[in-house]
Amino acid sequence: KGLRDVEVRLDRDRIQAKGLVNIDRVKGKVGDGGGSWGPLSFLSGDVPVEIMGKVTAKDGFGTVQWESVYLSSMRVPISVLEQLVLSATRNEANPEGFDIHAPFRLPYSVNRLRLQPGRAFLDF
């Protein structure tokens, strides 16, 4: 909730995602980022967000090593992204939320994923 117009770009072993996030909807969900001097305190309304990271995937599991997060043109700590995703994904079935650093099982019995500009190759 609060995220729209998402665009994902795949490059060699990299993922870049852009979109618009409504800061007013997510401010209270970030632990230290929501305080009076936190990185989100200076923003409001819909602002562009851009995240970039390196993707590795083999043996049926993938990981993303997040490298940067930008809100508007301001670089913010990866911990702000961590808190936003954790709070947005908590529910009865998953009370801990989703850890953006944890390995994840590749879907459909995919064994390996190789990224190239504009393409994703799946090995089964």
Biggest pleated sheet: 6 strands, antiparallel
Helix-strand pattern, N to C? EEHEEEHEEE
User: Regions with pLDDT < 50 over 5+ consecutive residues?
Assistant: none
Coarse structural class: mainly beta
Shape: globular
The total of beta strands comes to: 8
Question: What's the rounded overall pLDDT mean?
Answer: 86
Beta-strand percent range:
over 45%
**How many separate helices?**
2
- Helical percentage: 10-25%
Distance from N terminus to C terminus (CA atoms, Å) equals 33 Å
Rg calc: 16 Å
Task: Report on this structure.
The chain has 124 residues and is mainly beta. It is 13% helix and 46% strand. The protein is built from two helices and eight strands. The chain has helices spanning 23-26, 78-89; strands spanning 3-11, 14-22, 46-58, 61-71, 74-76, 104-105, 112-116, 119-123. The strands form two sheets. Strands 1, 2, 3, 4, 5 and 6 form a six-stranded antiparallel β-sheet that branches. A two-stranded antiparallel sheet has the order 7-8. The protein starts with a strand and ends with a strand.
